Amino acid sequence: MAGRGRPRAFDRDEALHKALGVFWERGYQATSMSDLTAAMGINSPSIYAAYGSKEKLFKEAVTLYTATEGRYTRRALDEQPTARAAVTVMLQDNAAAYADPATPAGCLTVLAAPIPVRENASVAAHLARMRAEVRDLIRLRVERGIEDGDVRPDADAPAIALLYSTVLNGLSIQSRDGVPLPGLQQTVAAAMAAWDALAAPDGEPTGGTFGGPER
C-alpha cells in the first residue's frame, strides 16, 4: 500500500498563533517569509504545504484574530441591553485591548494593510470588507435600538454606524502611535458625549460619566 507521506512535525495551530503575532506587529507587506519561518519555527516549504501561500496564511491569521483578540466588538453589540451601552462597551473594551502591553498595539484589521498597493491589493480589500462588516454590525445594533425604543425613531443608523466605526478605527491608530489607555478612554468619553444629540430619545437622561453602563 502506498505511503501516506510524512506527518507534519509541528503543531499547525500553534504555528498559526505565532504567525498572527508577526503579522499583527509588522503588517502584511513588511512581513517576510524569513520573519515567518523564524517565528513559526518551520521552513518555507512547510509553510506553503500547510497554508498554501503567505496571503492564505495571513487570512487564516485574521480569522484567528477575529475569533480571539477581535471578539470584543461582537460581544458588546450582542450582549449589552441598549444600543448606547453596546457602543460604549465596544469602544471601551477595544481601547483596553489595543493598549494591552501583552499584545501588539492596535487592531490587526486596521493596521495590517492600510494602503492598497499592487503587492497587497487582495489583502487590503479583504480587510476593508471586514471593517465594513463591523460598520454593518453597529448599524444593525442601532436599528435594533430604534425598534426597542432606546434610540429615537428618526436616528440615522448608517451615519451613527459610520461615526462610531471611525472612532473605533481611530483608537487603533492612536494606540499604535503610542497614546496610552487614559487618552484612549478620553476619546471614548468624548465620542459618547455625541450620542445624546444623535440618538437619545427625547427626555432620556444623558449617559453620565465615562464609567458607562453596568458591565
TrEMBL record:
GO function terms (MF aspect): DNA binding
DNA-binding interval(s): 32-51
PROSITE patterns: HTH_TETR_2
Keyword Transcription: yes
Highest taxon of source: Bacteria
Keywords: DNA-binding, Transcription, Transcription regulation
Domain HTH tetR-type: 9-69
Chain segments annotated as transmembrane: none
Keyword DNA-binding among UniProt keywords: yes
PANTHER family given in the database record: HTH-TYPE TRANSCRIPTIONAL REGULATOR YJDC (PTHR47506:SF1), TRANSCRIPTIONAL REGULATORY PROTEIN (PTHR47506)
Protein name in the entry: TetR/AcrR family transcriptional regulator
Lineage: Bacteria, Bacillati, Actinomycetota, Actinomycetes, Kitasatosporales
